[in-house]
Specification:
By secondary structure, this protein is α+β, with helices and mostly antiparallel strands. It is built from six helices and seven strands. Mean pLDDT is 79; it is low at 2-21 and 23-64.
């Protein structure tokens, strides 16, 4: 397998025989639930006597009227997308999906003068970095190595998490993107492949509506245009999938492929 301010817009063949390089084999820690931003509370209210300048120690301390509570608007359609032309990078071998995903993550958050990461030699170096930081019985790069390299090359910190419920996983990913302005890694095909989440659409802004609903997920599959005979075709770069479409390839990892005690769940390489 496999921050910089977000570019925010309001208004988001055959690989059935993928080799060990796209086969993670470790379990991952569960994340603390992300918290939505809370409305600020009014400060202490001065007494009417103090406001009137009454210096008498026996004056009644009548509180001034509190302002009316702020009314939270109904959730509106919300779009978040980091993708620009040139951000996509293909994996140059069937093993290097993690490394290609690291290159794409860099491109999604790069500053204007930093340039694009897309070279084959660099991709091989990133894969080797991820591989040696992975604990993998198949001697490939896994999500732990993926997260570690993202941090080391200046895009971190990232953490690998396992989330039992599908909708919670989507909400966790969207919330992390909205707060950090960085992409999320999706551990695909029961732990065999790596995609990058480049954006999303929702009803409600995750930063202001705790009960927002994710309605679309923008993805980048480094195996495009090939795909898998088992899992289906690779979507084109920055394709917007609805949750049902993503669920055909984004599934829980296989417990036998992981060596730690973390629970079975949907795996994310999550920006912190």
């Amino acid at each position: 397998m496999t921050g910089t301010p977000a570019r925010l817009f309001v208004g988001v063949a055959v690989a059935a025989f993928l080799t060990s390089g796209c086969s993670p084999a470790v379990d991952l820690p569960s994340p603390p639930p992300a918290q939505a931003a809370s409305a600020s509370q009014p400060g202490p209210v001065e007494s009417a006597a103090a406001m009137a300048g009454d210096a008498s120690p026996t004056a009644a301390a009548t509180p001034a009227p509190l302002p009316a509570p702020t009314q939270i608007a109904e959730p509106q359609p919300f779009t978040f997308n980091l993708y620009e032309d040139g951000d996509f990078v293909p994996q140059y071998t069937f093993e290097w999906c993690v490394a290609a995903s690291i290159q794409m993550a860099h491109n999604l958050v790069r500053k204007g003068g930093e340039g694009t990461w897309a070279g084959q030699a660099q991709q091989g170096e990133l894969w080797e970095m991820a591989r040696v930081r992975s604990s993998n019985a198949f001697n490939g790069a896994n999500p732990m190595g993926w997260a570690a390299v993202l941090g080391e090359v200046g895009m971190g910190p990232y953490k690998v998490v396992s989330i039992p419920a599908y909708e919670d996983a989507l909400r966790t990913a969207a919330r992390a993107m909205a707060y950090t302005g960085r992409p999320v890694g999706l551990v695909m095909w029961s732990g065999r492949h790596a995609w990058v989440m480049s954006g999303f659409e929702s009803v409600g802004d995750p930063r202001s509506h705790s009960e927002f609903q994710v309605t679309g997920i923008r993805v980048m599959d480094p195996l495009y245009p090939y795909g898998s005979g088992q899992w289906g075709p690779s979507p084109a770069p920055d394709t917007l999938l609805n949750p049902e479409q993503l669920a055909t390839q984004f599934v829980v990892r296989e417990p036998r492929r992981w060596s730690t005690d973390l629970p079975t769940g949907y795996m994310l390489v999550l920006p912190q």
